[in-house]
Amino acid sequence: MASSKKKFVSNSEDTIRMFKSDFLEAFSKVHWTVPLYVFIPVIGYCIYRSAQTDLLLWQYPLVILAGIFIWTLTEYVLHRWVFHYELPGKWGARLHFVIHGVHHDYPSDKMRLVLPPSLSIPLALAFFFLFKWLIPEVYLWMFFATFIAGYLFYDISHYAMHHFNFKSGLFKKIKQHHMLHHYQDPEKGFGVSSPLWDLIIGSVFSKKDN
């Protein structure tokens, strides 16, 4: 069942059972709208808290840009060096399959294209307390609202890339970039919502790959 980080194989089946336990299996699946229900209220609360601070009007665009920038970097780092990292041995391969390998083996599985709350909520809390430690509170709330909005864009657009047919425009190009990661070379194209860090770090696909 485990998938190797060196070779991902697209399976003709849409899904696979991951756990013998029905309880654990249920937590491995999530409808694509769930992150919206969970995190849009969080974004709204953070914007409300930001309005209670002394953040000046001209500072908002700078904080928003910083939040977007840090999200794109976070997305790249998590995808490349966490989701694609495989510990040695049978258990390492199994853990890798559960975290991300299953998505490469079954990329059309509609219930495993966004992060389940059992993972996204602890990650969001961890990042919030990290930012709270690093960032003055006057900037924290708007920064975190933008960071979480970046995550939502990533999660929902990831679902769309696998199940929507874009005829033209920016999303078609982003989808092509992600499909090359799945079906041509999983060691390139780690940016999902943006190829920015692939361009900066050098993991972008060349023109001949397209």
Automatic annotation (TrEMBL):
<keyword id="KW-0560">Oxidoreductase</keyword>
<keyword id="KW-0812">Transmembrane</keyword>
<feature type="transmembrane region" description="Helical">
    <location>
        <begin position="55"/>
        <end position="73"/>
    </location>
</feature>
<keyword id="KW-0479">Metal-binding</keyword>
<dbReference type="Pfam" id="PF04116">
    <property type="entry name" value="FA_hydroxylase"/>
</dbReference>
<feature type="domain" description="Fatty acid hydroxylase">
    <location>
        <begin position="65"/>
        <end position="202"/>
    </location>
</feature>
<dbReference type="GO" id="GO:0016020">
    <property type="term" value="C:membrane"/>
</dbReference>
<feature type="transmembrane region" description="Helical">
    <location>
        <begin position="113"/>
        <end position="131"/>
    </location>
</feature>
<keyword id="KW-0443">Lipid metabolism</keyword>
<keyword id="KW-0276">Fatty acid metabolism</keyword>
<feature type="transmembrane region" description="Helical">
    <location>
        <begin position="138"/>
        <end position="154"/>
    </location>
</feature>
<keyword id="KW-0472">Membrane</keyword>
<feature type="transmembrane region" description="Helical">
    <location>
        <begin position="30"/>
        <end position="48"/>
    </location>
</feature>
<dbReference type="GO" id="GO:0080132">
    <property type="term" value="F:fatty acid 2-hydroxylase activity"/>
</dbReference>
<keyword id="KW-0256">Endoplasmic reticulum</keyword>
<dbReference type="GO" id="GO:0005506">
    <property type="term" value="F:iron ion binding"/>
</dbReference>
<keyword id="KW-0444">Lipid biosynthesis</keyword>
<keyword id="KW-1133">Transmembrane helix</keyword>
<protein>
    <submittedName>
        <fullName>Fatty acid hydroxylase superfamily protein</fullName>
    </submittedName>
</protein>
<dbReference type="GO" id="GO:0006633">
    <property type="term" value="P:fatty acid biosynthetic process"/>
</dbReference>
<dbReference type="InterPro" id="IPR006694">
    <property type="entry name" value="Fatty_acid_hydroxylase"/>
</dbReference>
<dbReference type="InterPro" id="IPR014430">
    <property type="entry name" value="Scs7"/>
</dbReference>
<keyword id="KW-0862">Zinc</keyword>
<keyword id="KW-0275">Fatty acid biosynthesis</keyword>
